[in-house]
Amino acid sequence: MQQALWHKTKGRGGACRRVGAMVLRYFYLLGASWVRVAETIYWPTVQMILWGFTSQFLQSHSSWLAHGAGVLIGGVLLWDVLFRGNLGLSLSFMEEMWSRNLGNLFVTPLRPLELIAALVVMSLLRTVVGVTPAAVLAIVFYEFNIFAMGLPLLLFFLQLMVSGWSIGLVVSALVLRLGLGAESLAWVLVFALAPVSAIYYPMAALPGWLQSVATVLPMAHVFEGMRQVLFEGTLNGESMLYAMGLNVFYLAASVLFALRTFHVARKRGLFLNAGE
Description:
The protein is mostly helical and 276 residues long. The chain is built from ten helices and no strands. The chain has helices at 2-32, 34-60, 71-98, 102-105, 112-142, 151-178, 185-192, 208-214, 218-232, 237-268.
């Protein structure tokens, strides 16, 4: 009986040590990536800032929603276009890293620019498939038809897609350079821009210094344009042209950044050694 009790105690102690060893392993993995550490603080902070500005604005503009009940739903749907545009591109790229297939791809005649083009097309397909059912359900559940905006909706969609591609290319390049420990950047970077993108409230609701940041973000002008279409039925063409110019600049810069990163990765053998 004493021997059986000894084995039972030993088994329990061994289980605790094994659990402790795994916890220590995950702790070391967390500490080895500054991105993971920052992420633990990041999400509560961003949510607090985003919804803090939203609630602050609604408290002082209670009649705002009465004149545009669908404006929040419209903001959610268009935000999802931006989010999925980014995620559709970056996740498609990271799937190649997860399967360790980048080395196989780049020993073929495939060029980096061709890979980028394929990622863009895949992002577009994923976004259309993901957002269309949500837009239809908004009609059924909330009687809000975002398609009623007509041609401006197509313009907003294209603008947000391009913005998403720019973010996705930067994310993909950073994950390639920093390793898969930085894969959460696919969510982190786009949500970092949410509070200053004027999704649920106008840019005027932001503090002065943040308004300056919002003016150089094309998505902020898109959401401002959406509200103008819903409230007034008009579109600010000058603001949309300005947003287009910003999108062209950011997309060109992100493509160049990605191509440069691919070049460095090829030299350093990162395509074959992509990992944590």
